[in-house]
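Entry 14. Two folds queued back to back today. First construct below, sequence then C-alpha cells.
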Amino acid sequence: MGMPAKDMTGLRIGRLTVLHRDESSRPGHIRWLCQCDCGALTVKQGGALRLGGSRRPVQSCGCLIKEIARKRVSTTKIAFKHGMTDSLEHRTWSHMRARVRHLPQYTKRGMHQPWYDDFRIFYQYLIETIGPHPGPGWTIDRINNAAGYFPDNIRWLTTDANRRRKKKS
C-alpha cells in the first residue's frame, strides 16, 4: 500500500487556497477543492498542486494564464480581435499579404503599408470606397498591374473577368 495522502487543507499555492479534499477523490488520485483569488472554486489533482519533476505546480483556476494572454495581446500591435477572421474581406486581405510576402512579382510592387499592418484599416477603406466583398466568384484586382495594392488601384472583379484580363497582358 502507498503512502497516506498528505493533508493539503489550508495550503496556499500561487493564487489558490486549498479548502478540503474533494469527495470525488479515489485512491491514488486525490483531488482538492481550492478557491482562487479571483473567487472561483476549482478542483485540482494533488499532484498538480505539488512540484513534480520539471513541471510547475498549478497556480490558479485558469485566470492567471488568461490574464497573461490579455497582457500579451494588449502589448502587441497586430494581436487583436475584430471578429472578421472568417469573412471574405479578411481572406482577401490575408491572401494579398501572402502574395506580397512570398511572390517576387508582387513583392516588388508592394502593398500600402497601413493595410499590410492592420486589417481594420484595409477593411475601412474597402467599405468607404469599393464596398464589401461581393461574394463568391469575385476577387480583388489591381487596376494598374504595374502598381501594387494601393488606394485607388484596387477593385472587385469577377474571377472570370480577371482570368481574361491576365491572358491579355
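Second construct, same run, same settings:
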Amino acid sequence: MKQAVNLLLFGPSGTGKTPLATGVAYALLEQGIRVKYVSAVNLVQQLQVARNELPLPEALTRLDRYAVLILDDIGDVRQSEQEAHVLFELIAHRYETGSLVAKASGKKPPWQGGITPEKICHPTEQGNCRQPDRIVDAEYPAHPNQVWAGDITYLRTQAGWMYLAIVMDLHSRKMIGWAMDKRMTTALVERAMQMTITLRNPGKGLIFHSDRGSQYTSKR
C-alpha cells in the first residue's frame, strides 16, 4: 500500500477473478485499510456527471479516502471519447494517490502496450537514427515539465477498438495529456500534445521523447 502498487486481474469468465478480488478486499479490510469495490461502468458514469456539473478533480479527490479502489469489469465501459477521458483521468489521479485493482474478462487485458521510450530523433529525420538516448542515460527529471514521453496504444471497447495517445511527465510518471480516436493518425498525437501544452504551459528546454512511428515523425 505504501508504494501504491496497482493490480490487473483478467481472464475468461469463471476463472476466479471475482473471488480473488473479493478476497483481496476482505484481507485489506481486516487490516483496517479502507477499500471501495465498485462497478467500473457505474463509477465512470458518476464521474461523467461530476465532470459536467462540477470540477472533476473534486470528485476524484473524494475517492482518496480509500487506499484501494477495485474496479469491477473495467472492460464493460462503453468508451466514448468523453468517458475515456474520465476513465484515464481517474487512472492518472490514482497513480500517485492510492492503489487500483482492475478486473476484466477476456483472454487479454482491455488495453495493451504502454510507454516504451526507445530513441531520440529529430521529427524530420528518416532512415537510421544514431542520436544518444539521453532519457535512459539521465536521472529522472528533478522538476515537472522537463521531460515528457509519448506513445500510442489501443483499447478494446464495446464500441470497437479505440486508439489512445498519451503524454507522460517523467518527473511524476503521471499521464498529463491524452486523446482517443478510431484511427491512429498524426492528428491523434497532435490533440494529445495540444491538451498537454494547454494544461501545463511548459517553458523553454522541454524534451519530448517518443518512438519513430509515422505519427510522430510526420512533417505535418
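Quick look at the second one. The first strand starts at residue 7 and ends at 11. Residues 109-127 have pLDDT under 50 and may be disordered.
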